[in-house]
Amino acid sequence: MKIKTQYNAGNSVRLALILALNFISNSHGQDNFAQFELEREDNWSPLISEDLNGDSLKDLIYSSYSDAAGRELYIHYQQSDGTFQTTPERIEIKREIIGIGFAELRATPGMELVLYATTGVFGLSPSIEGYSDNLRPLVQWDLVANIPDKKTIEFLPPLNDIDGDNKIDMLIPGSDGYGLFSSTSIDPDKNSFALKDIINPVNDNLISARRNNRGAELDGRLSINAREGIVVDVAVEKSHPFDNFLTTWPRTISTDGLPKENKPLLENESWIPNIIIGNFDNSVGNELAYVNLDDEARPQLNLRLIQKQNSIEHFHWAGSLPDGGDSTFVDLDLDGLLDMIFLQGGGNSWEAKLYRNRGGGFDFKNPDQVMRFSGYDVRLNVFPTPVGDPALNVSYYTIPVVEAIRNASVTRVNIIYKNNADDDLLLFERKPISRQEENFGVENIRGLAEQLTLAYDVDGDGKNDAAYITENGTLAAKKVQSDLSIAREPFWEYILPKTVFEFKVLMLNDDDVPDLILRHGTSTTVLVSRP
Questions:
Q1: What are the phi and psi torsion angles at 239 (to 5°)?
Q2: Burial of 496 (0-12, 13-18, 19+ CB in 10 A)
Q3: Cβ within 8 Å of residue 235, ≥6 positions away
Q4: Cα–Cα distances in Å, from 128 out to 59, 133, 470?
Q5: C-alpha span between 87 and 523 (Å, rounded)
Q6: Residue-wise over 503-517: b if at least 16 C-beta within 10 A, else e?
Q7: Stretch 312-338: mean pLDDT, rounded?
Q8: Residue 230 · residue 448 · CB < 8 Å
Q9: What span, in angstroms and rounded, lies between the C-alpha atoms of 382 and 499?
Q10: Helix %, strand %, coil % of the chain (to 5)
């Protein structure tokens, strides 16, 4: 049994680190960065950024495996000039450890390693060498996953305050459900946790469906990725009772002003549904959301209230989800509550149903808005306008038949819908306020590595920008105008000799200027802003 998280690391990792300490300007001469290049054999394995030594500078963390040393955790500490140590600190990963998380558990600043083992959870300070006089038990609990991978390590999300009492909590999957643990210690150097409740999201309907559902389904999709280019998949799969339930989008804006990464609510490789912690009403603390089945064997969303005392009441709300699609949580109206988008369709025909959170519940029979799109890889993202209103960004690919045959052409479409202030029945206006189309062929195929996104504020001016990969494989950004149209020319571009296939905008220090992680084919470039 296995905890399914962000990714699985690959085979043994061979490292070569190249440090370039320069004040490198982008092509428009507006920003300076310290550049650090990390080369790994499996460059697409996880790269985590956390502040482990409490200096307000986030460090780079990843796992490695070799036949001689086994599993190890590699840490490159960030230095005051924005560079990283060329030689990583190495921490042995004992064979009993299944996963690693992070939490502030000691009086000294910095994140501590949270080690998940078969029978419990332990804390380990990365600043102290070895396990002796360093490892301390936090929770005794039989995890749902009990066989560690011999070569890889699972990274779990950092621990945080679940119920709003300003103390670290743990929600840990076990064989009989999730254990909710709350901190009981006043001394931060002697953190202890007590079991407050056990939440079991599996109901009798889900058990029955898992046993009896033996149908099959045909699925086809088009995708574009850095490794394989344009891929068209047609697959026949045996249906699973966990299929097409629920995944989440960024459910909040983090303290550094950047959207949090997507987190799955239900994973097919898990024996029990995943639980999502989020704000579904305006009570103190958060609520728990998970999916099982209703009496008609349809996917059912459940919301449970967590009170400040860490006691969990009976079901706060439950409702049957629509069939045959993917549902995601996102704050559609920017009121702080999680709403839902239900995306249904296949091939190049998709329908999006928007559901507004009605004070802690949803009316899935009556969507607040229905939108239809003709394209592949349809993505929807809500972002704030300069005046604070929500706007909807939709992006997808189209393949014109004639052009595809003649020139192998693909069109990237980006649409923006303005907030609907005139009609309370609709969240966004019926017609888009702006539309941008770009054509890509063999000569500029590198620009298709990733879709244009409005999720990031690239220059740190408080306004989201349109970030994208150019046809030359560089990273660039365009301004979003006051009328929500996207500027024709980029105001910023960062040129590297290597093609960028994937990028991430985040904060790696406390200067309030965004930093960048650029993923290439066999290496990753980390750019830390400099004043």
A1: -70, 150
A2: middle
A3: 218, 219, 220
A4: 16, 9, 45
A5: 16
A6: bbbbbbbeeebbbbb
A7: 84
A8: yes
A9: 28
A10: 5, 45, 50
d(CA 122, CA 195): 15
User: If pLDDT is split at 50, 70 and 90, which confidence band does 278 have?
Assistant: confident
What's the distance, CA 15 to chain centroid? 26
Lookup result for tokens 């009798």: 204
- 442: exposed, middle or buried (C-beta count within 10 Å: 0-12, 13-18, 19+)? exposed
Kindly calculate the radius of gyration of the chain based on its CA atoms and give it in whole angstroms: 23
Token code pair at residue 169: 């909590």
Query: 49-85 pLDDT, tens per residue?
Result: 999 999 999 999 999 999 999 999 999 999 999 999 9
Q: Which two tokens stand for residue 230?
A: 């344009």
Per-residue confidence band for 114, with pLDDT thresholds at 50, 70 and 90: very high
How many Cβ atoms sit within 10 Å of the Cβ of residue 424? 8
C-alpha span between 499 and 481 (Å, rounded): 28
pLDDT of residue 277: 86
Q: Output the furthest CA–CA distance in the chain (Å, rounded).
A: 70
Q: Write out the two tokens for 81.
A: 């000039």
What confidence category does residue 270 fall into, taking pLDDT thresholds of 50, 70 and 90? very low
Whether the Cβ atoms of residue 135 and residue 120 lie closer than 8 Å to each other: no
List phi, psi (to 5°) of 373. -135, 145
Place of tokens 């024709």: 488
On the CB side of 297, CA atoms within 13 Å amount to 10
pLDDT at 215 over 70: no
For residue 398 the two structure tokens come to 């189209």
Residue 527: strand pairing partners: 35, 516
Residue 366 banded pLDDT, cuts 50, 70, 90: very high
121/137 Cα distance (integer angstroms): 6
> What does DSSP say about strands 515-519 and 502-506: parallel, antiparallel, or unpaired?
antiparallel
Q: pLDDT value at position 137?
A: 92
Residues 327 and 334: beta-carbon distance below 8 Å: no
CA–CA gap between residue 265 and residue 248 (Å, rounded): 6
